[in-house]
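Q: Lysine N-acyltransferase MbtK, please. Structure only.
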Amino acid sequence: MTFTFRPVDPPKDAELLHTWVTHPKAAYWMMQDAGPADVERAYTEIAADEHHHALLGLLDGEPAFLMEKYDPAHRELVGLYEPEPGDVGMHFLVPPTDTPVHGFTRAVITAVMAHLFEDPATARVVVEPDVSNKAVHALNEAVGFVPEREIQTPEKKALLSFCTREQYLAARGVTV
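A: Structure for Lysine N-acyltransferase MbtK:
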């Protein structure tokens, strides 16, 4: 599977994103009660934020998943850990489907990580999933993330985890 990425276009993509982020399987996205206007507003704010970016992952030109990348020195994790130069925060969401494809979500997170590490300035990817989200912990581990500790964010108890470029490549079986 080959994915491409494009920036979220809030007016154009809000309706689609609304169906994704409010679905019961997207509970960890914490937008269950959002209306379409709320989703458009949230992604308009992200589009205007120099430290936070939302991208749609496309498969054959069609939206297949959502990813966000952010600067943890300025967003999400400010004051919760000591950021290092080259740290990039990441979230991803694979929408629910009636016809799941085995290995799709793992292909998505692998593509997200490859995309982040295409930038030579990215030294380490930082994630902070909910401690109870066991499925994403397994996916994170599969691409090289190492949990550091639990932290309390304003929204949740999270598992702060890191993945260096070397850890990602090792998880992919690439020797460095």
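A: Brief note, in case it's useful. The beta strands are 3-7, 52-59, 62-70, 87-93, 124-127, 146-152, 157-164.
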